[in-house]
Amino acid sequence: MKTYQLNSRCIPGAYQPAMALEFARGQDVDVSLLLKGMAWDEHSLRQPEALLSPAEHLQLLHNLAVALPGGDGAFLLGQGLLPGHLGALSHALLQATNLGQALELLQRYQAWLSPLLAPRLMRLGDETLLYWTDSCALPRQRAFLVEMMMAAVTGMARWLSGQRLPWRYTFNRTRPAHPEQYAVHLGSAVQFNAYLDAMAIDSHWLEQPWPRGNGAGVEMAVAAAEQELEGQPRRSLLTALHDHLLAHVRRPPGLEACADMLGMSPATLKRHLAQHGTHFQAELDQVRIHVTLQLIHNQGYSNERIAAYLGFHDANNFRRSFKRWTGLTPSMLRHQLQPDGLD
């Protein structure tokens, strides 16, 4: 299976990296500071054939975060990131007929529209969640990237719908010392210490028509994009592993089987995962968390039924594992999922 990894040259320099340079210039930041420690100058990065690796893009964003005072650089950069100017894919987003179609395009073409974090959709009751798993992110930069992509989707949806949509935001991190920046850029419906980095919205908003929507235009743009992107990897190593584990979560394959699926040795897979700051068991546990969330919310499964579904020996074993994964017991999660359970 063809995937991209931290050192794969796959990110067009003239797109998101160049947008970061323009943003920095607009903030009166010396652009040369963003390229510190990189083998690129601004001219070469902007060339049509220039391809950066995810590691280089992460370095550029790290340099930007260091150079910008105030701590809200991720939100400000993200606000202009989508639909962007990535040829046919950006044209498809511009003509999306509704929020549901725009999010489906973002998810299908994440390797180009969101190469560092993989957007995923989950239906929970009457709500739809857009949440992110790591694609080529590193743990120390995840907060910046999540803020950037949440702002990108929020800004795109507001522009294309012609109104501010009632998103609810959750962050898998402790409450920051200065949470007012989140209120300024995202609104008041923000929760910390949650089980997912996610944006939630009532599902009926996914079907509301957008004033710029053009279904035929989307089809033509997608067809053109498919030609432009033929032969290029569509998923990162971490995304492909997550998808495979999710598809087989009831009888999860081991490290050896997953390595074989990805066309590499177990030792090579372990090394690649370590480079991303993770390991195989952590990736499997993350998938189990997401599935547990759906089983509790959508199916109302008891601990006993979830344990059986996920292949645990008994409910106590599942409960202990879930507490280790999330810091919550399943009953605490059930409380959070109640309408009055979120603070």
How would you describe this protein?
The chain folds into three domains: 1-69, no CATH class; 71-228, no CATH class; 237-336, Homeodomain-like (Arc Repressor Mutant, subunit A), CATH 1.10.10. It has helices at residues 16-26, 31-34, 42-45, 54-67, 73-78, 87-94, 99-108, 110-113, 142-161, 180-186, 215-228, 237-247, 255-261, 266-275, 280-297, 303-310, 315-326, 330-336, and strands spanning 11-12, 51-52, 117-124, 127-134, 168-170, 190-191, 198-202. It is built from 18 helices and seven strands. By secondary structure, it is of the alpha+beta class. Strands 3-4-7-5-6 form a five-stranded mixed β-sheet, sandwiched between helices. It has a two-stranded antiparallel sheet with strand order 1-2.
How is the secondary structure organized here?
Elements: E1 11-12, H1 16-26, H2 31-34, H3 42-45, E2 51-52, H4 54-67, H5 73-78, H6 87-94, H7 99-108, H8 110-113, E3 117-124, E4 127-134, H9 142-161, E5 168-170, H10 180-186, E6 190-191, E7 198-202, H11 215-228, H12 237-247, H13 255-261, H14 266-275, H15 280-297, H16 303-310, H17 315-326, H18 330-336
Helix pairs in contact: 6-11, 12-15, 13-14, 16-17
